[in-house]
């Protein structure tokens, strides 16, 4: 609820019941007006362009009505109500963090001490609350397990159906992860794999990866996940200059292991938003192409930082390890969490299927569940 509302030219100042005060510009309020002539009632999409708003927009009058803000804009003479809760949620008059390498609100970074978050297959299919909790774990930690699923090929596609759609690639709708005689990718061998993000040679990279276990009687073959954001934060703490080098210069990645396929991208190993927030980590030694975008006098320092980042990622204190049983799966945020596996022997068998999906589908489904179940957050 609002206590007071005043205006001076193009600026509105409001005070909430708790004493907090914040300011809004007239042009911002007019652009974000919630009336049905400005935004479609059904989907909330804006019905006007910025050019439809007078350049000399200012505030003619403000008052508090029922605890909410009423504003009359001039020269249009248009009056709009802004709910107090909406204003609080969208306040921008505040000090902003400036430290490079910080994480977005709601993310929790972790190391080997984390107990792997997870949920039960039947529960997430039957109970929206369980599904919400599972998706929320992926959003917060970047990965989560799913146990108790059917042991049948293509069951992983039903995992993707819980929140979105499979992203098809040159590997198909899904791919097999098991030993092959003439593999086109090292993932199809029994070799151990260093922690990595998948497909850094794509632009954009697949946002999510699902791995689903159908057989796992071989010795070894444990799955390992590493929080790339925690690794980047460690690098920043231990070597700020090295962190700046990996974030400030593009690396290059390439894959051309199949006929008719030559994928290339140019992106930093540690990607930051313009305001310094961590956006993504790309790390895959197998798919790295020659680095040619680092100045000559910084190349040695870049490689030193690259080596240190790799050592942090390989540190056992960073990884969470677990062995998937048939019918179990896990999902990783491929823009953040690296995954690895220990090597496994030829005795027994190990058969996983994998597929990709996009983060926006998961985050959209989660947001819709949160709107439908607001009491679950209390």
TrEMBL record:
CDD domains: CAS_like. Its cofactor is Fe(2+); L-ascorbate. Keywords: Dioxygenase, Iron, Metal-binding, Oxidoreductase. It is an enzyme of class 1 (oxidoreductase). The keyword Transferase does not apply. One of its GO terms (molecular function) is gamma-butyrobetaine dioxygenase activity. The keyword Ligase does not apply. Residues 9-87 form the Gamma-butyrobetaine hydroxylase-like N-terminal domain. InterPro entries: AlphaKG_dependent_hydroxylases, GBBH-like, GBBH-like_N, GBBH-like_N_sf, TauD-like_sf, TauD/TfdA-like. It holds the Pfam family TauD. Residues 116-356 form the TauD/TfdA-like domain. Its EC number is 1.14.11.1. NCBIfam families: carnitine_bodg (TIGR02409). Belongs to the gamma-BBH/TMLD family. This is Gamma-butyrobetaine dioxygenase. The lineage of its organism: Bacteria, Pseudomonadati, Pseudomonadota, Alphaproteobacteria, Rhodobacterales.
């Amino acid at each position: 609820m609002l206590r007071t509302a005043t205006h001076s030219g193009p600026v509105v100042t409001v005070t909430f019941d708790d004493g907090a005060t914040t300011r809004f510009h007239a042009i911002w309020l007019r652009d974000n007006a919630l009336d049905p002539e400005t935004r479609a009632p059904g989907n909330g999409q804006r019905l006007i362009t910025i050019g439809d708003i007078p350049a000399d927009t200012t505030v003619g009058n403000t008052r508090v009505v029922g605890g909410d803000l009423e504003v009359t804009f001039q020269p249009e003479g248009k009056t709009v109500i802004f709910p107090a809760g909406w204003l609080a949620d969208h306040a921008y008059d505040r000090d902003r963090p400036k430290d490079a390498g910080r994480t977005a609100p709601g993310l929790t970074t972790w190391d080997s001490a984390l107990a792997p978050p997870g949920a039960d297959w039947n529960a997430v299919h039957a109970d929206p609350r369980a599904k919400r909790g599972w998706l929320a774990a992926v959003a917060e930690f970047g990965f989560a397990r799913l146990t108790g699923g059917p042991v049948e090929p293509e069951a992983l596609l039903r995992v993707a159906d819980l929140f979105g759609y499979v992203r098809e690639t040159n590997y198909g709708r899904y791919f097999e992860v098991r030993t092959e005689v003439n593999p086109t990718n090292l993932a199809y061998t029994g070799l151990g794999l260093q922690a990595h993000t998948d497909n850094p040679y794509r632009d954009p990279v697949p946002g999510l990866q699902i791995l689903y276990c159908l057989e796992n009687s071989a010795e070894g073959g444990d799955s390992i996940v590493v929080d790339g954001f925690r690794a980047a934060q460690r690098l920043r703490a231990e070597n700020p200059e090295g962190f700046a080098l990996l974030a400030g210069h593009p690396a290059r990645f390439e894959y051309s292991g199949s006929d008719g396929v030559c994928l290339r991208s140019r992106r930093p190993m540690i990607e930051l938003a313009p305001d310094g927030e961590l956006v993504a980590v790309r790390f895959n030694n197998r798919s790295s192409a020659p680095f040619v975008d680092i100045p000559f006098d910084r190349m040695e320092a870049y490689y030193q930082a690259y080596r240190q980042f790799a050592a942090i990622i390989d540190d056992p204190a960073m990884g969470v390890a677990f062995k998937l049983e048939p019918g179990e799966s896990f999902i990783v945020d491929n823009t953040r969490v690296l995954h690895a596996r220990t090597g496994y022997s030829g005795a027994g068998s190990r058969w996983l299927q994998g597929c990709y999906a996009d983060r926006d589908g998961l985050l959209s489904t989660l947001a819709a569940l949160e709107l439908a179940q607001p009491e679950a957050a209390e």
